[in-house]
Design goal:
single chain, 228 residues, alpha+beta, Jelly Rolls, 40% helix
Length: 228
């Protein structure tokens, strides 16, 4: 039925097809192998990039932390410097504060003097100087406007026929010193130095006798030597 040529052709078809199928299958396997290798390589790269990214993120966070710490430290130093400046300005203002007063009696009577009857502060009504407004003529007291070391000076003159007179410089009720005059035209004086805190008071108190000369014969003076 078939010629020899036909038999040969049929044999070729039967055996050629499986060969072709086999060849295509190997190619697919090879392609998949290549793809697997490529995926593995990509995964390695991805993993490396992930590690690098984490490292960079950690470095970035560390840098942010350092910057925040540096900023906080700088802010603290700036605040401290501002506080120091404020303290220095306050100190300069305090040190440059002038406090001084000189007071006496407006009235004077050479024969009878100014009568003294009370141990309350003597009211010197003639204010020669009152820098800093520390002296109050209404109650006869000096009130320290700033804390510091002060010096006080008191001089008095006696009156003829009235015997001895004693005056005292008093700080917050504590006597600092006395001034004594024996008789007519006898003059006594004293100077004391004392530390006063803000608001402490100093005044002159009648301690004994009954009269002193007025005007510039009896004078009370005080001034700030050094502020705290």
């Amino acid at each position: 039925m078939f010629s020899s040529r036909s038999k040969t052709f049929t044999f070729f078809i039967l055996f050629a097809v499986p060969l072709s199928i086999c060849t295509n299958s190997d190619a697919d396997v090879n392609a998949r192998a290549v793809d697997d290798v490529s995926l593995e390589s990509l995964q390695v790269v991805v993993d490396q990039q992930a590690v690098l990214t984490q490292s960079l993120q950690a470095e970035l966070q560390a840098e942010k932390n350092r910057a925040a710490a540096a900023e906080a430290d700088l802010l603290s130093k700036v605040t401290a410097a501002q506080n120091n400046i404020t303290a220095l300005q306050t100190r300069v203002a305090t040190l440059s504060t002038a406090v001084a007063f000189t007071v006496r009696f407006t009235f004077d009577d050479a024969l009878n003097g100014i009568p003294l009857h009370s141990t309350s502060p003597m009211l010197f009504d003639d204010i020669v100087l009152n820098t800093g407004d520390g002296y109050d003529p209404q109650n006869g007291t000096f009130t320290a406007p700033v804390a510091g070391t002060y010096s006080f000076f008191l001089t008095q003159m006696g009156v003829n026929g009235h015997g001895g007179t004693i005056l005292a410089i008093v700080q917050n009720g504590t006597t600092l010193d006395f001034v004594y005059c024996k008789d007519h035209e006898d003059q006594g004086s004293t100077q004391v130095t004392s530390h006063l805190v803000y608001g402490e008071q100093v005044w002159v108190r009648h301690q004994g006798g009954n009269a002193v000369r007025g005007s510039y014969y009896t004078v009370f003076t005080g001034y700030l030597l050094l502020a705290d």
